[in-house]
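Colleagues,

For the teaching module next term, I've prepared a clean inverse folding example: a structure given as tokens, and then the sequence designed for it. I'd like students to try predicting residues themselves before seeing the answer, so please don't circulate the second half yet.
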């Protein structure tokens, strides 16, 4: 579902990532937030734990916002598509798990960063990656951005 296209929901994602960075629980090197998914290039002492915490907190915050805004259709969809074994929750916002890939060298880092930054272009949303405001591409150009990242000198 294209929930992250909603500016309030996207802001929850940004604020949560910023919090993890400020708490020094996550180092963020690159990101892009699309309408229905996000890509991160990040590191943490326990990345699986931090991503699980991120997903749990953002899911609760987004569902609370949807309930406050009486977004009944969206909530019904999140309830309908919830996995059957998830008996302790009413809704499922995120897919289970995540798909981490170890980045082994500078070339691979550059390729992954280029891929995520060009995701909005590939989807036809913008002509230039710098036009997508929910992306670290602007950070690498030293333009105003929504979220700080630890820049890697490429």
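(Answer key — instructors only)
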């Amino acid at each position: 579902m294209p929930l992250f296209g909603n500016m309030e929901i996207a802001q929850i994602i940004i604020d949560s990532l910023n919090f993890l960075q400020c708490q020094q629980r996550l180092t963020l090197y690159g990101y892009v937030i699309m309408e229905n998914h996000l890509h991160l290039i990040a590191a943490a002492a326990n990345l699986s734990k931090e991503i699980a915490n991120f997903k749990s907190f953002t899911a609760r915050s987004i569902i609370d916002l949807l309930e406050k805004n009486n977004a009944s259709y969206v909530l019904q969809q999140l309830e309908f598509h919830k996995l059957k074994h998830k008996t302790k929750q009413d809704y499922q916002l995120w897919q289970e798990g995540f798909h981490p890939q170890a980045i082994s060298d500078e070339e691979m880092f550059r390729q992954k960063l280029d891929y995520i930054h060009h995701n909005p272009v590939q989807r036809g949303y913008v002509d230039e990656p710098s036009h997508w405001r929910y992306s670290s591409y602007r950070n690498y150009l030293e333009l105003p951005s929504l979220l700080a990242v630890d820049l890697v000198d490429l």
